[in-house]
Write a structure and sequence with these properties.
Elements: E1 2-9, E2 12-19, E3 33-37, H1 47-51, E4 57-60, E5 63-66, H2 76-80, E6 86-90
Antiparallel strand pairs: 1-2, 3-6, 4-5
Bound molecules: iron/sulfur cluster (2 copies).
One iron/sulfur cluster (SF4) is lined by residues 37, 42-48, 63-64, 80-81, 83, 85-86.
Length: 92
């Protein structure tokens, strides 16, 4: 199942197909690291939202919010964040 959005990049409007939230199921207890956002460093570029392969990052007035029920801890959001506002912390 997928949803589609329209995004504007460098003056072009492009379709973006993303997986529906929960398409891969709830994560459960196997995740070893999870991303945590430092909002004081977030510049609301939405690259993490764009790149999350599981579509578990949503936009709100504070910037971006991660749904930990479905986040797999893959770290892609951490890798793409230009300001290092996201850190990967061990699960307890
Ligand atoms: S760790 Fe992976 S699944 Fe979780 S929010 Fe980041 S990109 Fe998405
Ligand atoms: S990639 Fe980093 S700076 Fe950009 S919206 Fe996500 S957390 Fe904020």
């Amino acid at each position: 199942m997928s949803s589609s959005y329209l995004i504007r990049i460098k003056g072009f409007t492009l379709p973006l197909s993303v997986a529906s939230e929960g398409a891969m199921g709830r994560t459960g207890s196997w995740r070893t690291f999870k991303p945590v956002i430092n909002y004081s460093k977030c510049i609301k570029c939405y690259l993490c939202w764009l790149h999350c392969p599981f579509s578990v990052i949503s936009k709100d007035s504070s910037g971006v919010v991660i749904d930990y029920e479905y986040c797999k801890g893959c770290g892609i959001c951490y890798d793409v964040c230009p300001t290092k506002a996201i850190v990967m912390v061990p699960e307890r």
